[in-house]
Amino acid sequence: MELHDFLKVIRTRWATVLATTLVTALAAVAYSLLQTPLYEASTRLFVSTVGGTSASELYSGNRLSQERVLSYAQLLMGETLAQRTIDRLNLDMDARTLSEAITAKAKPDTVLIDVSVLDTSPVRARDIANALSEELVVMVRELETPAQGAAPDARVVVEQRATVPPEPEVPKKKRNLAVGILLGGILGAGLAILRDILDNTVKDRVQLEKVTGSGVVGVVPYDKGRRENPAIVFESDNSPTAESFRKLRTNLQFLSVDSPPRLIVITSSVPNESKSTTAINIALALAEADHNVLLIDGDMRRPSLARYLDMVGSVGLSTVLSGSASLDDATQESKFPRLKVLASGPTPPNPSELLGSRAAKKVLDELRDRYDYVIIDTSPLLAVTDGAILAAESDGAILLVRAGDTKRDQIAHSIGILNDVGATILGSVLSMVPNKRSGPYSYDYYGRTYGDRLPADALDRRATDPSR
Predict the structure, then answer these.
(1) Rounded to whole angstroms, how far apart are CA atoms 365 and 369?
(2) 124 and 181 share one domain
(3) Fewer Cβ within 10 Å of end Cβ, the chain: N or C?
């Protein structure tokens, strides 16, 4: 992964990085609050040996002092001195516990020893540090005196006594918070990269072109206004969404200059990819360019165009194919210039057989001759075969893909279905492209048996949601 790829992942999944950082920062704060405050008192000891008169004797004495410093540091952290300090101060603890709270460090190339003691009480920490240092002075005198009455070979002087520490040494709140934020940022970046690697959805046109093996004819941004009003009034709308459909219209007209597609199927892999809304607005965009357009609801199992465009849904494609109504009687004028609509009609018991019949082929051929463009909204390819049947009889199919939601294997499967029936794939449209990535979108719309109709009250609720 190159730097710009890494930055793109971080920018796209900033919420993951931020959430992880906040969690680790809160954990660091909680850890600091739960820790028992410990105060540190420090003393400094000076070690010297018997001096000499010559330069060599002075050098040897200094080297001897430096060697003794390391031994004395070990004595300070031992249980013997700890017990003597406990006895001296009448402390209520054992020698091992006290020795674990003592740290003695010998400064390199010097004869100095820094002693520090941690304790829950600042006053007791000071008393322990001073008493411990004084006990070492006594112990060294005992150990370094060769005979009764003789001068000791080395001695220890308390160069700096301990004072009462003003603030606790533990916990280090600022350090803990900084470490928590740093670790959170690293962990968050790692999680963001892992999520991106495991994410099987398509997010941009480059990925979509790789999966489909065909060009992207349009990119439609997410527009929450289309949920309530799916149809764009192109005569007065110059929004980014309207412009994206105008570009899509232009791309469709230049797909094949010698034989441009006129009967076009709009389909998708799964529900909730803005298929019906896209079909409506492609038809309206073509109508805006002075083309006579017919919009057909080819989804006989879950029709929606009649609801979205305030049309009569009881007469439509199914009644024409069954011979119950003529094509002229079933076709309805819309409130938009140069756009007519053929609703789905009542749901038949055998939609796939009806759409694959000779009557359906005859009707489609007749419509191709009547109109400049015929746009057919079909059912999702992975749900039933209806969309593939209509795609095979059309001049070409456009596959809708919802950005950040449709999985690559679903798209590949849909492309395979279209290729298997010999349909011409005009390209794909990346729909509902957000400025900020949202989470996975549930698509339980077709979770039940596809042929089952929803209850009337459920249909009314879905009538306000054109994002299927």
Answers:
(1) 7
(2) no
(3) N
Residue 297 belongs to some domain of the structure: yes
- Whichever domain contains 67, its CATH number is 3.30.70.1130
Q: What's the CATH code of the domain at 271? A: 3.40.50.300
Of the candidates 100, 102, 120, 90, which has an alpha carbon nearest to the alpha carbon of residue 43?
102
How far from 242 is each of 56, 225, 376, 398, 430, CA to CA, in Å?
Answer: 95, 12, 20, 18, 15
Count of structural domains, the chain: 3
Q: Which two tokens stand for residue 147?
A: 């005979």
The two three-digit tokens of residue 128, written as one number: 């322990």
3-class secondary-structure state, position 381: coil
Cα separation, 3 vs 17, in Å, equals 17
Same structural domain, 12 and 59: no
pTM of the predicted structure, to 2 decimals = 0.63
Instruction: Give yes or no: residues 185 and 277 share one domain.
Output: no
- Provide the residue range defining the domain that includes 26: 3-35+172-196
**Paired tokens of 364:** 């489609």
Alpha helices per DSSP H over 371-455: 386-393, 408-420
101: CB partners within 8 A, 6+ apart: 117, 118, 119, 128
At residue 380, φ and ψ (nearest 5 deg) are -60, 145
Strand-strand pairing, 154-160 and 112-119: unpaired
**Which positions ≥6 away from 169 have C-beta within 8 Å?**
38, 39, 40, 118
Please tell me what DSSP assigns to residue 72: H
The pLDDT profile of the chain, 468 residues, written as one tens digit per residue, is 678 778 878 887 889 999 999 999 999 999 999 989 999 999 999 988 765 444 454 455 556 667 788 889 999 999 999 999 999 999 999 999 999 999 999 888 888 999 999 999 999 999 999 999 999 999 988 888 776 666 677 788 999 999 999 999 888 889 999 999 999 999 999 998 888 888 888 888 888 999 998 889 999 998 887 777 888 888 888 888 999 999 999 988 888 767 789 999 999 999 888 899 999 999 999 999 999 999 999 999 999 999 999 999 889 999 999 999 999 999 999 999 999 999 999 999 889 999 999 999 999 999 999 999 999 999 999 989 999 999 999 999 999 999 888 999 999 999 999 999 999 999 999 998 876 543 333 333 333 334 333 343 333 433 344 444
139 and 90 in a single domain? The answer is yes
